[in-house]
Design brief:
Layout lengths: L2 E7 L12 H10 L3 E6 L4 E6 L5 H16 L5 E5 H9 L13 E6 L20 E5 L2 E5 L8 H6 L10 E5 H11 L13
Helix pairs in contact: 3-5
Organism: Streptomyces albipurpureus
Protein name: DUF1697 domain-containing protein
Pfam family, one: DUF1697
Length: 194
């Protein structure tokens, strides 16, 4: 059985460092035996089909090894299947339809993060900014955008999420990943790959 997945690469193509061209990423995923590979933007988003049945962690580990071998540096990767991505979009605790996409983000985690990990953060001190935990994810509402967010800055402190791989996407990308991993998603081209 073929499953559609998204690969979320962390911290590439930022400020001219850790460059992973999307064409090369598509080639690596194809060499790993995946099909219908497409990428979205330059920030490390790919969708692909796989019959491997190895599970998300094994697929991510294989991609991480391939990237390190090809480019000479390590990149954390998260792999998530379509059903999970769709559930994350559907379960958003904020009114996504009435917000600008730059105001809403999802941070995907490598494992479930319990509320005790973030208990030291007093959310009321950051209002109207807010976050809610989800299934291996965190929803972040930042009315003035991520770049100006004091709450996002506080959440990025290494001590809070030590040992957890985390990568954040804005709401446009969250929705696009759902679309690209849908079986009838019209995949096969490189959407937004420049």
């Amino acid at each position: 059985m073929t499953t559609r997945y998204a690969a979320l690469l962390r911290g590439i193509n930022v400020g001219g460092k850790r460059k992973v061209p999307m064409g090369a990423l598509r080639e690596l995923l194809t060499e790993l035996g995946h099909s219908d590979v497409t990428t979205y933007l330059q920030s490390g988003n790919a969708a692909f089909s796989s019959q491997a049945g190895d599970g998300e962690e094994a697929l991510a580990a294989a991609l991480e090894r391939a990237i390190e071998k090809h480019f000479g540096f390590a990149v954390d990767c998260l792999i998530r299947e379509h059903a999970y991505l769709a559930a994350i979009a559907d379960d958003c605790p904020f009114p996504a339809d009435s917000l600008e996409p730059k105001q809403l983000h999802v941070t995907y985690f490598s494992e479930q993060v319990g509320p005790e990990r973030l208990a030291a953060l007093d959310q009321s001190a950051f209002a109207p900014e807010a976050f809610r935990l989800g299934d291996r994810s965190l929803y972040l509402y930042v009315p003035d955008g991520l770049g100006r967010s004091k709450l996002a800055e506080a959440l990025a402190r290494p001590a809070l999420l030590r040992g957890v791989v985390a990568t954040t996407r804005n709401w446009n990308t969250v929705r696009k990943l759902v679309e690209l991993t849908a079986v009838s998603g019209g995949y096969g081209e490189s959407a937004g790959a420049r």
